[in-house]
Amino acid sequence: MNSCAHSLISRMTDKTAWAVYLLVNSAFIFKYAARTPYSPLLFFALWLIAGAGALWAFRRIIRSEQSARWAVAAMTIAAVALIATLLIVVDPLSVNVDRWSATTYWLDALADGVYPYGVHTHVCETNYPSPFPLWHYLNLPFWLMGDVGLGLIFFLLLLVVTLQWYQRSWRLTALALMLLLLSPAYWWEVAVRSDGLSNAILIFCVVLFMERRRISFTTHWPLAALIVGLAASTRLSAIIPLGLYLAASYLRSSRLSLCLSPLIAVLTVGFFFLPFVLWDTATWPFLGRNPLLTQSSTGNPWTLLVMAAVALLLILRYNKNLWRYMNSTAAFIFVFFLVAITYNHLANHAGTHPFDDADFDISYLSLSLPYALYAIAAPKTPSLST
């Protein structure tokens, strides 16, 4: 078991995944700590000390699968309790973040028979829901329970269960969970009832499911195409990790798959959008207000082309190595959204500090966290579904 512990700690020295984890959380610390009377450097130093202490305690205390299992249970219970407390204490209307109301008001409108993409969020009258239809439907159970923020608990539990199911190691699950719960970016998501990271966790779990079941375009291409379509029906950002995961197998698939897979994915997306396209064929509100307009507003076509070229290089680099895929995907998502939000900032608000610019939305950077956590905690597995 000592050799296992040394092996685990040695895997934690990977620079790329750690860099992404540190940079994402540093951005949140320096942005939001600056709004307090205290120095952001103080918060950053305290976070580093707490993280170093937690890693030291992990190495000293979590020496067996049994102790790791109890640690996962304790951390999960504590996290659920804290999330529930924040959902009760924090008034969502007091937070200048539109994620929770984008879903809540959308479902409210749908229940009232009102075109849901035409309602604005609580932030302002020019701010509209951007998630795609399937993501709203997935949040319907939490809306029925009275608060879409309850989805934060569900997706945390989904992450824990999926990691344990895939890795079959309580130690690795404990390490990934500990790092997540040490993340200021994660707790910002909880405090403002944001569902961005929850969506990223869902797609991450889908990738692990596909890897475990060996689902790809060369093995089960109709199912792979359907999954891509379903993911694309939640958010545009969901396409990035799935695209990186499946692109290599798609390029090696049969001619039938090459031709029909995109059609299946597009038809799947169209199935969820069609009711809103045809909501009112007299005034066609979908043409004037739809989530495609909102979610495609970040960045520009040239940025997209450059990042697509980088993505292709990453696909060729990781080939059949799942750990390298996780590492590369974490880095790509971080860089992609950093470039996109930086371009928006320079194009529209170059005269202001980035952290004072509402369009410089660093929450997009946290979408890389599930992949960084996996690359830090998991072994360098030499296989991807083919």
Describe the structure.
The protein has helices at residues 2-11, 15-33, 40-61, 65-89, 99-111, 133-138, 140-144, 151-167, 170-181, 184-191, 196-213, 221-232, 239-251, 255-277, 285-288, 291-295, 301-318, 322-348, 369-377. It is an all-alpha fold and 386 residues long. Helix 4 runs antiparallel to helix 8 (151-167), helix 9 (170-181) crosses helix 19 (369-377) and helix 13 packs across helix 17. The mean pLDDT is 88.
Structure in a nutshell:
The protein is built from 19 helices and no strands. By secondary structure, the protein is mainly α. Helix 2 (15-33) packs across helix 3 and helix 12 runs parallel beside helix 14.
Largest sheet: none
Structural class: mainly alpha
Shape: globular
How many helices? 19
Number of strands: 0
Helix residue percentage: 55-70%
Q: What does the average pLDDT come to?
A: 88
Radius of gyration: 21 Å
**Distance, first to last CA:** 33 Å
Given as residue ranges, the uncertain stretches (5+ residues, pLDDT < 50) are none
Which labels suit this protein?
single chain, 386 residues, mainly alpha, 0% strand
Q: Topology of this protein?
A:
Blueprint (H helix, E strand, L loop, with lengths): L1 H10 L3 H19 L6 H22 L3 H25 L9 H13 L21 H6 L1 H5 L6 H17 L2 H12 L2 H8 L4 H18 L7 H12 L6 H13 L3 H23 L7 H4 L2 H5 L5 H18 L3 H27 L20 H9 L9
Helix pairs in contact: 2-3, 2-18, 2-19, 4-8, 4-9, 8-9, 8-11, 9-19, 12-13, 12-14, 13-17, 17-18, 18-19
